[in-house]
Specification:
Layout (H helix, E strand, L loop, with lengths): L4 E13 L2 E13 L4 E2 L6 E2 L4 E7 L13 E10 L13 E10 L3 E9 L7 E10 L5 E7 L6 H8 L2 H17 L1 H21 L1
Antiparallel strand pairs: 1-2, 2-6, 3-5, 4-5, 5-8, 6-7, 7-10, 8-9
Length: about 200
């Protein structure tokens, strides 16, 4: 399924949290809002292998009552203090919380190829998928599972450009690893739409 789309775990590195150094990781990340995408005709061009186009997320207009969903990445942040049991982290050396990354109208360029003799055999290939994201387009918020005075500090650290870039890199790696799955989902959806149109 493309909605929500799993990106797995992303290691974020080691950073100073309060008076101690902590290892940060992002677990079980999923992206929602992929269905809110426009593919402008002006951004599409024929290539030797098929079509090159730009996917523009978060651009569909709302119905006046409910706004379209933004592209958002959510999961669990784990903050581990490997050498500080009983200090800044309290009695436990690990802090966990819910993490949400909202992404302001991102884009992705993709190369699509098409094979098959008819609608039943239509197969869409995704030859490339490159995210066009900048760190300033990401806003990270957290909500710790247990109240802690470190919550504000952790959120400030998670909004550093270096961590945002690791999140972008992790999402890109997940997209690269699952291009075939995404292409299959596009193929299944395209076949279903074609059959519905033909039957209607």
């Amino acid at each position: 399924m493309l909605e929500p789309y799993g990106v797995g775990d992303i290691e974020l590195g080691s950073y100073k949290i309060g008076v101690a150094t902590a290892d940060l990781s992002f677990k079980s990340g999923t992206i929602k809002g992929i269905s809110n995408v426009l593919i402008p005709v002006k951004d599409a061009a024929l290539t030797d292998g098929g079509i090159g186009t730009t996917l523009r997320f978060g651009r569909l207009p709302g119905d006046g009552k409910v706004p379209p969903p933004p592209l958002a990445l959510s999961g669990t942040v784990v903050v581990s203090f490997p050498d500080t049991r009983g200090s800044a982290a309290g009695d436990d050396d690990t802090i966990q919380g819910d993490l949400t990354v909202t992404i302001d109208q991102p884009s992705a360029s993709t190369g699509l190829s098409f094979t098959g003799r008819d609608a039943d055999e239509l197969t869409i290939g995704m030859d490339s998928l490159t995210l066009a994201l900048a760190t300033q387009d990401l806003q990270v918020t957290i909500h710790l599972k247990e109240p802690s005075p470190l919550e504000k500090v952790i959120q400030q650290v998670l909004n550093k450009d270096a961590i945002k870039q690791k999140i972008i890199n992790g999402v890109q790696e997940a997209a690269d690893a699952h291009r075939a799955d995404i292409a299959k989902e596009l193929t299944d959806n395209a076949r279903a739409v074609i059959h519905t149109k033909l039957e209607g």
